[in-house]
Amino acid sequence: MLAGRISAGDLSAFVFYAVIVAMAVGTLSEVWGDVQRAAGAASAIAELLDSVADIRPPPAPVALPDPVRGVVAFEDVGFRYPASPDRSALQGFTITVARGETVALVGASGTGKTTVFQLLLRFYDPQHGAMRIDGVDLRAADPAEVRKRIGLVPQDPVIFGADAWENIGFGRPGATQPEIRAAAEAADAAEFLDALPGGFSTFLGEKGVRLSGGQRQRIAIARAILRDPAILLLDEATSALDAESEHAVQRALAALSAGRTTIVIAHRLATVLRADRIIVLEEGRVAAAGSHAELLSLGGLYARLAALQFDQAYGSLLPPEQGGRFIGTSGGIYTQPGGGTTKPGG
Question: What is the pTM (predicted TM-score) of this model?
């Protein structure tokens, strides 16, 4: 420019375009980094999509009876998790749950209660024995057809970032709004949903952050009611609730389990007093079975758990040397062995 071969405008244009090219080259390096990261993610996704599930429908699946009666049977089931091949989660596990019966599974943590649910939902197959629904071996049936007949109310329900219509309707895609509302009313959830600013159309927040623990549980119960399953699995559905929420959820669970085959996992024994039968698990085996009163009379693990929980909740009814044990309540009166009764604090 000083020699007069180019003008000041030419120099300005060159500097301007040089800056643009430099910025573009820098952007290309960033884009190339994004491409490399995307290629790695795509490789992981492709590997996942190409993986073959261990649980697959058989070539000629056996059809489950229609309508389903809901009889569940575990026959000498033995199972070890792939991650712990040296430890048996269940061994020699044999129970039969009749149609419409409510069975509770109790025991210390790690005794195989959740494993029973995972096998029944066929997330795994046992290494030994068989599981049957209405006489059909689950390995001979289509897993999708098995799961259609089972409803699950988990301890920590999944609430999607959507409104109540979508969250409850997830239980049965294609359900109408009147059907969803009827399920919410049966689950004792319609009242608090109607009280929200937009009613059932209110956005519930990611993971249901706008709801309390008891309200989230009742959404899950409404979802199960809408599904109308023949077999119901309740996984410690009231463990983290306050007394008022627990009462509302228990009322909804009673309506849900009526007339259905129900299997309950519970650590709080007060939630299983109404069960037709209680199965005590110890180290993956059935240690005892019977009603609450029968298991108390047998002593053992269940009696120890009951003594710990009920004595803390209500106080000892009689000194241990006199055989005092909590059996149940009726109108605020505690019944005792031999038919005697005592009032709280008496």
Answer: 0.70
